[in-house]
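Convert to structure. Protein one:
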Amino acid sequence: MKAIILNLSAWMVLPFMDTIAKYLSSELSFFQITWARYFFTVFWTLPFMFFFFRKNLRWSENPKLQILRGLTLFSANICFFYSISVISMAKALTLAFVAPLVTTAISPFFLNEKVGLRRWFAVLVGFIGSLVVIRPGFLEFNLATIAALVTGCFYGIYVVITRKLHSTDNPLLTLLLTGVVGAIIASFLVPVVWVNPTLYQWSWLALMGIFACLGHILLILSLRYADASKLAPFGYFEIITNIILGYYFFSDFPDKWTFLGLIIIISSGIYIFRRELVNQP
């Protein structure tokens, strides 16, 4: 029960980070916002880990894989922050929920996992759900919509890499290194789009980092009490907080087609997780 509470708390916290990113996107570049997300995550996470989890901060056994993991999550964040600067948070998150389907599709090639016909069918159904949300030919198929889908693709790869690291590196170390990789890469590139934030904007950016830090720490703590595969379906709870915040702050509410696509994608994702739990390909 403790694991579920911690995990659900994380998915309630993280949409606040997205809300701040969308709010600031009308004044700052989405890339500068991405930089701040990483900079302030490391800024808040490093002291926390140093004082409470110093023994866990051993050097990685797979530094190249850690860097690749950081790159994939960094790319996913850029795509997602860009997408929510244009389209609603609910629609962007719904499309990003293809991540578990992507993970399932590529796991046979990178993790040597066997994926049976029923799980491949679930992947196909989830893809159809994303088409329901996009409705190509009926609505404008813009770059932000594509970016939301690419977010899910990058995150699916990120999950596969995380699985490979799970048996060797401490999760807290992985969290810290992921933040450091993103902060370093973004720091090299952000001067191109840099705009001096006001004190008010700096405050929001710092708060965004706190939500990111708190959310990921809650996720890590939840994994102490239950396996990731058992907690994974609770990640879909994020859409509830996302819809509430999007409607309250931006008057964005998903239409019936977005809801239908969301139900299809979530149903296929949960089916895949259930198949993984019983280990029947």
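Protein two, convert as well:
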Amino acid sequence: MISISELKTLLATPQRIVITTHHKPDGDAMGSSLGLYAFLIQKGHHVAVITPTDYPDFLHWMPNNSNVIIYTEAQEEAIQLVKDANLIFCCDFNTLNRINELGEHIRNADGLKLMIDHHLDPEDFDDYRHWNINACAAAQLVYDFIVNELKEPELINKDVASCLYTGIMTDSGSFRFPSANSTVYRIGADLIDAGAEHWRIHQLVYDNASENRLRFLGHCLSNKLEILREFNTAIITVTADELKNYEIATGDTEGIVNYALSINGIKLAAFIIERPDNVKLSLRSTGDFPANEICKKYFNGGGHRNAAGGASSKNLIDTILEFKSILPEYKKQLLQ
């Protein structure tokens, strides 16, 4: 591992830098990446943001979004940038399998790898680590990295602030999750003072749905929601045909699981969706219930205690049956 003083020395002169984040990036992934980008370009570095896959349209308004390189759409360019990079920042993930094929290119790259993340169980591929599982978002850690590690708060301009605010807002559930402590609120206030238009950012992210998405949401809640009161659990399941029929685009399924969790008395919610290559699961929970434990133990995934994800190689029906078969093991916790 390199020290922060060594990193400061490196960042004092122009470097070739790549920033990347996890596949199907969300608001925190893009907010932390583009916020870091907007900071680094002020220091004269040559910076590229590379995402492993596409990401939701409602994030495309973000400053410098037009400069993002999507690996699946420009593989040769992305691979060359990774090979040439002196520094590679990895934001909002801590295992290289979270960035698909791009992971092996980064593993084999000569550049120093720098992790900024808040998830459990980091893989040891990095040369510098700014990591805290108690942070509400990777964007909070990028803020902390700039302000408290590098001591350059003056470089948090409007672009940096807008991106970091987006990441914190989305990963903290609009500042309502337990991880949004008083420190997070103070950071939010600093970012607003630096130019983040909090009302506009909220509108662009949450009030920007397509007609198809709203009709699909209605279908999920009216026809696909199953309540298991004996386990205080709610499940929404979606087939590949339903995704096709509603012309669902990247990001259109995001947040649907939270509607199931909002039902009175529900402690665990699952959104189980059939994709071309496997079945994806998104779990949300309240209180101390370990959604991440279920994902890690049974579905090759992980995440945070109250927000986790996984995948299954079984078909949709068998995955649903497997999920339901697990619930008796956790019945006491679910009924507490």
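The radius of gyration is 20 Å. Residues 4-206 form a domain with the inorganic pyrophosphatase (n-terminal core) fold (CATH 3.90.1640.10).
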